[in-house]
Amino acid sequence: MSSEGNFEDFFDFDKPPEKPVMDDENPYLMEKDKGIELISRLMPIKKVNEKRSMKKFDHIVDEKLLEHIAYQDSTTETADYIEFQKICSKIKEQSALTKLIEKTVIGVGGQFSAGKSKFIDNILKEDILPDAQNPTTSIPTFVLHGDNREIEACTYENYVTALDKDAMQAITHKFYENYNIGFASVIKNMVITVPEFEYPNIAILDTPGYNKADMDKKQEKLTDEKKTMEQISVADFLIWLVDSEGGTIKEDDIKFFGKIGINTPILFVFNKADKRTENDLKQILEKAKETLDDRGIEYFDIISYSSFEEKEYFNINNKGLKAFLEFANGYTNNKENTTAQLNAIFKNIKTTYAEDMSKHEKIIADCKDVAKEQAHNITSVMTILSDSYMKMQKFKKSVSEVKKVEREIKSILYRMKSK
């Protein structure tokens, strides 16, 4: 379900060595000991018990449940499993980063250079996210309201450490610029809490870009489509940014967010609107509306926006960015919590099994009646009976195993919330 950080990707040996350009204000670059101390804190730490626990969790999600719901006659098991995976992705994120528990996550996606970080800074009303990142340094980052201004980094080993702003800038840009060291293969994500953020129920997720056109082989491995999809899969809502200079929505974009499985209306933002004429912007939005309507893609609104000017120009549905954020913030009060969502999924799985068993019980009863009246068809009748009996036994075993999986998942969730 998740990507593992690899030590071999920690250094980018393909990047030609350059003479370091020191940042006079960043102590992690100016003071060697502080830089080494930061690197040592962020290197993968072998936490055997926790890693073993997460491997068990992956085994439950990726193998045990899928193995047993695959016996269902109904086609609903695919939808159940996809939804189950999505919830479990959230549980895994929250297992290390408890600040995310029960938050409504808005994923901000789009291709590289669409201006995602600057756009989020506009929402926060301050410059906090690192920009000018590349695939080797880009780290998915959650931003949410908190009583104090804090930054935490979570490694692929689920080790969480506190950072200051200088450290964040160093690991997301400066270390790579000066020493060819990229942390995207080590750090799974970061969480930033901002007291001034006015939407207490929301966590905004700044994701890496996904386009591969200008990446080398190593960078593809770090930030390919799969990694970005894994990050966005935990989102309840999606804001999709498009560079206005590139025209309307691209086919690659449509294919990408079509795979994500967002069940809520998407906000499409054509960023860098200050670089196009008003007439161009109106035409771009109309073309985007036509494309999305033709594809049957549900959208909250389609807007043109300038992160540089911190200004929204036009929109299609007369709603806009602020209405979207307010809608998402209120959504938290109406949505079921993680436990309730799991209960609903397991109830649906068990109900489907009950329906399947009832169907085969009827087949068995009908076969017995036929066997009494048509002895000459006994061979074919016994074949059907045998098949239904075998399925009934598999169903009963699977129901028992699904109940065990349910207890194990809820136990993990309980321990996580009790940290």
Give keywords.
13 helices; alpha/beta; 419 residues; 10-stranded mixed β-sheet
Rounded radius of gyration (Å): 25 Å
Q: Strand fraction band?
A: 5-15%
Strand order, largest beta sheet: 4-3-5-2-6-1-7-8-9-10
Percent range for helical residues?
40-55%
Distance between the termini: 23 Å
Helix count from the secondary structure assignment: 13
Q: Write down the overall geometry.
A: globular
Low-confidence stretches: 17-21, 212-223
Compressed to H and E, one letter per element, the order equals HHHHEHEEEHEEHHEHEHEEHHH
> What is the number of E strands?
10
Structure classification = alpha/beta
Can you summarize the main beta sheet?
10 strands, mixed
Structure description:
The chain is of the alpha/beta class and 419 residues long. Helix content is 51%, strand content 15%. Strands 4-3-5-2-6-1-7-8-9-10 form a 10-stranded mixed β-sheet, with helices on both faces. A hairpin with a 4-residue loop joins strand 3 and strand 4. Helix 3 (48-69) packs antiparallel against helix 13 (378-417), helix 4 (76-96) packs antiparallel against helix 12 (338-373) and helix 12 runs antiparallel to helix 13.
